[in-house]
Amino acid sequence: MATLAVAADAASKAWAVSRLSGGRDITVAGGLVRLQLRINHGATFGLAAGYEPLLAVIAFAAVLLLGTWAVRASGTAERIGAALARSPGALHGGVVDWLHIWFYGPTFNLADVWLRGGILIAACGWLWHRRAPAA
Q1: What angle do CA 25, 35, 81 make, to 5 degrees?
Q2: Residue 64, phi-psi category: left (phi > 0), alpha (psi -120 to 50), beta (remainder)
Q3: How far, in Å, CA of 86 to CA of 1, rounded?
Q4: Total domains, the chain
Q5: How far apart are CA 127 and CA 119, in angstroms?
Q6: 91, 52 Cβ separation under 8 angstroms
Q7: In this predicted model, what pLDDT tens digit does every residue of 16-65 receive, in sequence order?
Q8: Does 134 reside within a domain?
Q9: Residue 75 lies in domain
Q10: What is the pLDDT of residue 35?
Q11: Burial of 134 (0-12, 13-18, 19+ CB in 10 A)
């Protein structure tokens, strides 16, 4: 599952760089979604731009923690969620962001979707597995 998520993220970023360079935007769904190329040199929302070595260390630690969670997970949903929630890389000086939704401020990419969705799935799986037994 994680391999497929990484491949989809990498392919979508390659597509975005090839199709959206030079300031080209594509608007779809009646303006609800705009595909636009942005290079993010920081973490989420561009925070910590200029601190790529620190971000790389934090990303590496996050990968280790999420990997450990995936291995020790007690349920399938928890395991899949932790695997999807792998941290995006920060070693190349900038991350390709290309999705913009009208009601959400920052431009993001599939890795952001996998990260947030994976954490949500893993947390729900963890909570479901630990729910109180029916009386």
Answers
A1: 165
A2: alpha
A3: 11
A4: 1
A5: 12
A6: yes
A7: 999 999 999 999 999 999 999 998 877 766 667 777 778 778 878 887 88
A8: no
A9: 2-129
A10: 96
A11: exposed
